[in-house]
Here is the input.
Amino acid sequence: MNRGEARRFVLERLKGTGISRVGLEADMLCSEAFGCSREFLLAHPEGLVTREQEENLDSLLEARILRKPMAYIRRRASFWGMDLEVGPGCLVPRPETEILVETALEKFQGGRFLDWGTGSGCVALAVLSERPASVGLMLERSPAALSWAWRNLNRSAFRDRALLWHGSSLESIPSSWVPVDLIVGNPPYIPSSEIDTLMPDVRLYEPRQALDGGADGLDDVKAILSGANHALRPGGWILLEIGGTTQAEILQKTLIEGLDLVQVKKDLSGTERILVWRHR
Here is the structure.
């Protein structure tokens, strides 16, 4: 079997599974199994596949048919131009979360910031990479996610500018870090009743703790906002990713002591995605 034949075999197996963009996914699986780039795979279909590569491809393909996330299969995901290690217990970084980073960079030029629910560390590492005069506290309640954040922080050039902290609330952060100039976070925001409607890749594999935001999806958002007076300096910013119009409307009507909602930012699909508050 050569690479072109292997690719066609994978493509046929993926059809009818409910997986979108099967051509791209076939290329990614083959590239991973053969240890080559997608460009090389497509440019050299005549290359022969070894028995070891074929077995590796079969294993990866079966995992994907069972809807294991591609990022988990490859053990990496791209975010803000970085390749981050991800796997079980860690939320896979989403493209829309880059809007959270963009918004943070508009408001924050340097100082101390808190990344609430850091997960893979994607948001904190992106901010650190763009703001050399910043230091970040990467807060995470899941030990499994913390292990992935540690891998990514340890591989970065920012190890001396960030602290990983195991905790679940703003009250749990070290007193020496308070107050911060910015709180940024991608908390769980999917309503509990909607978890079972998510695509299998997410529902079956990604950590529910990082997805389920309670009855209206806003349990963690409200907890962050309620603790802001303790953690944020006057004039500081809170930026949170949310789940859309309904949640934006709820939060726009919610008065929070010491905070003013100053911006609602939409993603590329026109969905309300980022809310920005400023501490008075």
About this structure: The chain has two domains: 3-66, 80-279. The chain has twelve helices and nine strands. The chain has a mean pLDDT of 97. The domain at 3-66 is CATH 1.10.8 (Helicase, Ruva Protein; domain 3).
